[in-house]
Fold these 2 entries.
Entry 1:
Amino acid sequence: MSKKIAILGVGWLGESLAINLHQKGNLITGSTSSIAKSKELAKHPFYVSRIEVLPTKIIGDWDSFIEDTAYLVINIPPRRIENILTIYPSIIAQIANKTPKNVKVIFVSTTAVYGASAIPISESIEAIPVKESGVAVLAAEKVIQNHFGENATILRLAGLIGPDRHPGKFLAGKRVLKNASAQVNLIHREDCIGLINAIIEQDCFGEIINGCASKHPVRANYYKNAAKILELDQPVFEASEKISEKKIIDNSKSKELLNFTYKFDNPEQIFKSESEGTVSIIGAGPGNIKLLTLQAYELIKDAEIILHDNLISEEILDINTTAERVYVGRKFGDKFCQMERQDNINMLFHKYYYLGKKVVRIKSGDPYIYGRAGEEARYLTKEKIPFNVVPGISAALAAASYCNIPITERKKSNAVLICTAHTADYSFDQLKGIASLLKAGNSLALYMGLKSLDKLIPKLIEVTGNPNIPINAISNVSRANKLLLSSTLGEIEAAIKENPLPMPVVFLIGVEPIQ
């Protein structure tokens, strides 16, 4: 059943949470205090309000944000500011005072409310924060509990790690660090999202719950290994015989109460293949969404990053409105160096794969028919990045079907040659082989030839000696604005001048439509 969920603070955690909850069919509203962030978040299918909560007032349309909301996730951590002890609890009080008490609230708190302890720290241990920020958060927790009572759950999260927050960057290159022998308390973003989902789905309110991985690696070893994985300068910890204060967060309650299984139960999993992403190179066909394979559709729908070319239709891209879209294609006349372009695409593969993202590279038609998938597949193979390639319907095959042009037919055409004019050198030897096929009664599928007809056609006529060979130009194959222009080698240039065709255009030569 769809639930209306408001997320106050659509940042690093909140945005991914909102996407996840939306994909499960919930009605999501979000908020951010930043103008720039609100513009960036406009790409999502859920509405994000611009709301800023101050100690004395709320700026923005809070009433609309909270209206009919069943669940409110408060995800606004305290900033490093002076007077945090009074400012942060006052901010949370503004939220509480303007929210109906029957709304069920998840307050995203922190394990920083706990001090050191000789035993693992469960929720039953009294929270005695050491830093002012921890004191402020604990006071904010009490504000929430006093207002919402049994309708509020406090979720105390350990240090956050995940995509774009790799622990290798936290302490890389730093010197004379303390507490080398301390054990770390961390939680992956996917597990944070999983816990919040479980609380909502199981209606688990009126609780305090710790969120933290079960394993607690030694601090110095963990951050050195993390930096090494990213090929960054390893942090240096001071040599000391002093035993670090012990603080190990116990997550038993979250696992037992919510029947929850941590995907990243050991923070070191972020170093390994389990945390790596996926790469799929898919053929989108000629443009009509109905010609996508089911596998391609599902991969696009689940993608986090979409690398796409110029010819991919908005209809297909709109299958997934939450993924980050990166345009990596080219248009006719584009002078950008192809080698640099491909290097950039390869860099994006590498970057997003190791950030744990689901990457989909969408290509028009079929990836291995003039889609340059070979270059990308070789790079991925060399880098030992696993990938899969999903076939698509190539433009020539779609054109043949849509326009009733049998490119192979018994006693008429035994073979079809697929070629491109884009990289042709237009030499006699090159065209002689093509022309000999046409002369023998076979067909030719020519890609990217619209701008090269003045070079190709005269030579084909010269070699074949037959200006009456049929040729069909098909523009925007499979789309609503599809056009078919049938002519002969001798007349096609004049026909196109009289009836200009928008790109992309594919030519089927040597065969005629069934009429």
Entry 2:
Amino acid sequence: MPAIQTLAPGTPLADRIVREYLSDVASRWYGRSASPEEVDQALRDEPYDDLKGSTGVFLAAMEDGLPIGCTGIRFLDGVAELTKVFTVPSHRGRGVGTRMLRAAEGVCRARAIHTVRLDTRAELPEACALYERNGFERIDAFNDDPYSDRWYSKRLFVR
């Protein structure tokens, strides 16, 4: 089972998995393989350099020294927003996404955060199924992200 660890945004391993994530979602959006230039633009459009320190955390599932999954946690006024939840296609269906969500929830509980939310798209059915299987409920839009058409939230019990 892969180890979950914190990676600093902008490091080679973090950038590697984020670029894989962006390539995957951009390719689905365009209906074809995204070009390196399109992935570069997506990285500029969706920075993740704030996922460190008091504003967030970037987690990666690691196997044989390489990232096979990731999720970012952004801390926003007592609420956590998950971003860039991703498992490489070769490892989907093996529980990596569930482990990433549980690790993210653990980070949130340790900070006494009671609500976790995220946005996604209907064209990512495996992501929607993952969130619903793990207790996330659909909610009204909490942002105006032009690439999102589904929003989810989960209430955490913090001791």
